[in-house]
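User: Can you write out an input/output pair for a complex, sequences first and structure second?

Assistant: Here is one pair. Inputs:
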Amino acid sequence: MLNELWLIPALPLAGFLALAFLGARMPRGLAGFIGVGSVGLSAALTILIGLRFLGAPPPDNSYTQVLWTWFEVGKLSPQIAFCLDPLSLVMTFIVTGVGFLIHVYSLEYMRDDPGYARFFAYMNLFVSSMLILVLADNLLLLYLGWEGVGLCSYLLIGFWYSDPANCRAASKAFIVTRVGDTAMAIGLFLLATHLGSLNIHTVMEQAQVQWAVGAPLAVAAAALLLGGAVGKSGQLPLQVWLPDAMAGPTPVSALIHAATMVTAGVYLIARTHVIFELAPSVQGLVAAVGALTLLIAGISALAQRDIKRILAYSTISQIGYMFLALGVGAWSAAIFHFFTHAFFKALLFMAAGAIIVSLHHEQDIFKMGGLRKQLPAVFWTFLAGALSLVAFPFISSGFYSKDEILMLAWYSPQGGWHLWLAGLTGAVLTSVYTFRAVFIVFFGESNGHVTSKPGSMMTVPLWILAGLATLAGLVQTPITHLLERTPLWSETAGEQTAHTGELGLQVAAIAAGLLGIYIAWSRFVVHRDSTREWTETAAGAKLCALSASGCGFDWLYDMLFVRPFITAANFCKKDFTGAIDTAIVSVNMGLNYALHASQSGRIRWYATAMAIGAAITLAIVILL
Amino acid sequence: MSSFDLYTLSPLIVLCSAPVLVMLAIAVRRSHETSVAITLASLGLAFVLVRQLGAEAPRQITPLIVIDRFALFYMALIIAAAFVVAVQGYGYLKRRHVQPDEFYILLLIATAGAAAMAASTHFASFYLGLECLSVSLYVMIGYLRESPRSAEAGLKYLILAAASAAFLLFGMALVYAQLGILDFAGLAHAKATQTGSDMIVVLGFVMMLVAVGFKLSVVPFHMWTPDVYEGAPAPVTGFVATVSKASVFALLLRYFSAMDPHLYRPVYVAVALTAVLSMLAGNLLALRQDNVKRILAYSSIAHLGYVLVAYLAGGPAAIQAVSYYLVAYFVTTLGAFGVVGTLSTRGEHREMDSIDDYRGLFWTRPWLATAFTVMLLSLAGIPLTAGFIAKFSVMSAGVGADLARLVIVLALTSIIGLFYYLRIVAVMCARPAQSTAPVGAYVPEEKASRSGALVLFALTVTLVWIGVFPAPLIGILKTLTLGAH
């Protein structure tokens, strides 16, 4: 009954193939139609399959479709198989649904770009890779999707490749995430060799059977997987690539930040949470990483001038919340925050893209101002997204998901007041930087000159996402219940039991958000001049520079890794290992010359060589 | 001979009568299209018959020939390859001023000979098949009489192949003189019962090995390969590189599975040494080569070395690994020479085989360059192509049979191979060379022949298809059994 499952990733893949091979000769309309249509069909199919799945859940709430076995050698038999369970259903729904809206938006955003077909080809491949990742039934296929996502992010961040800065950003994203990917690959090898299978479900079951809580192998596996997750999800210490990834076209940023790529790490941890439960120390580390990241990213966002960089840091910070939730065992809360975050972050990026296009590719917020009147549709939708991002009480979806995370950070056995406090501080920071952007961009005096207004292809997806960002909180209970039916899903965080003082925490969370908005209002609307004066003082300028540089991580890594590495490489250039390399080459070349001499083209010599060969063969056979 | 025997032999009968039919058609009226149509139709019919026979029980027909699943599989492979060569040859010959029709007669005779070899269980049928194949090949290689290189290649092949045939015949004669046996099963029986080694018989076997080594173009009998590959018309090169080798390999598998090579250590050592030398020499010789056809020739020497590793593993694993490897090698090689042939339609006097002809191909003929890249990646054994699975199964067969040293050589030489395959890809990616035509001049776009392009497309898809989805093919290979028992 769910037999069409394979079509969900296959359709965008087919779209990619068609565009990659024929895109250059296609009329633009057809290229756009294929690009959007393939993801649209995939999204429609997801809804259909989702309804069937909910209507008549398969046994164990998990449906596996084995397409074929790649090859079989010994115990290794990697299968091309997809698995649908509540977790992958929710992920697939977001990837295709939000992905589809972003594609529609791109139709207009990329309208005049010469690389139109190439853009949609990459986007389709991106969506397809992400779908393979979330639907994969085994670790190898998951890794294929994982690498595919990495490749597409490289291609799309560097989409405008004629500017070297964009290529540098693309390389940076690729190389930094590669650090994590390597850790993850080792982790997967470890799981596969010690647990004797590549199938995710089997691996998880075997882990529970074979490993005790805190077993060294479990800790190692969890730590390595975490390495992969922090790389892809832009978490400390590998978060540095994400702000630079803004070099790509804005729909790409929306896709990377909302529906694909950065959520891969969250998915990975949720999918392999059994391993993390067996390694409580690493799970604690996940929470610590999340808490630290959300604070550092929040501080970094405060002084950014580029609207896309503000949003980039906000993504890092929000994924930090998801990691925090994962770290305290609140799997469903993490995925639910991913669910709402996908809507409002895609919305914010696309609204920002609409502003950027309207102002003729201006990204500096201080050159915007007063756009509330000029771009009302963008203003209202951006505001809906911003409210959701700051978890404005009751009328935003972010409120429901973030509130849940903060609550569980306090009550969960793995949680504690310090995690909660970090989350709460982060909430204040979130409101400050978000509304700083809102006030500077949409209020005050008009600086920029609006050259064009976004058309319906851009505004309709914005309104749809604004609606979803506002209302998605209503499905919190059904989604949570659905996720709890995922096989092996075990909520270790506190169940929905009533805790004393829950109301107090909720009030504190609401107050934190409102306090942030108030600070932003007072600093950037009422006392804007005094704020500007403060930034010109010595201390203020230093603090701003620190924040603007993303708390100096780029500088730190440059000092710690890049420069020593280059120095070491320069040093090693002259050592003997180089001689080994050249020796290999010259040995091969020398042999080539020697053998080449035998190919004289003279038939006499060829016949002689044949006779000599026969004689030698005979000698071997007789003498042995 | 019963009528059922005739039915069982029907693919061979079709293949043998097809050349006569083409000759008759030429006698009535020369028409390139008619000749091609008859050729393709008879090859298609033979293929269908082979498939039909797959369900029948294996059958020994006279002491000469056995029709079992193993023979049928190799026949199918050979016929399919001949089909591809015929289509490629059509596009190739159409643009050259030669009488094209006789090409198809020769092709059909060669195919019949190769198919007979795959099914032979007797020295007589072996030799007859081999000569049918070889004699046709002399003419096919030298088919472009006007081109000195083609004629030279034909002559070289003729002289050296004749020498190797002499080795073969003399070897057979020695064995017969000593044992009085010509069929493989009888030989195996005689070998098993015999105690101690008979020097004359050993001499006979070694001589036969020389001839087989020549056909397979393995070191030290490989020297003709680059010259002949370079001189022959591209479709013929594809045929020489695939069909003539696979038929010999089929025979080798059948012959040596009849007599366990492990019982006969010195021969085993000699073959292992040949394999190592082929892998090394083939890959090393290709390193600085600037002629694409010669690169492919050297690479084929190396690939035959890889196949020998699988062959030495012995047992059912060897049959599977060798057969899979040969299928992948067939598709890749036919595709690669198909690309060369398709490109060569532009030059009347010369084939486009210098590496400079490929500079910037990605920008001028992206489809062709993509197909060629896939072929080269498969030859290099990159995952998701058939070449990867092929090399993997060869390695696993080798590891399973404790041939660690051979497998290590295989892995190391594959690294060398990567260099020259990727070099061609890199050249194709490079910016196109400055056109000599004045700026803005109209350069008519060259069209590949449609049939050739279609075949090339099919080969590329097949290559990726069996690389990603090899299970059905492996399923077929698992059922390949020898003999009529």
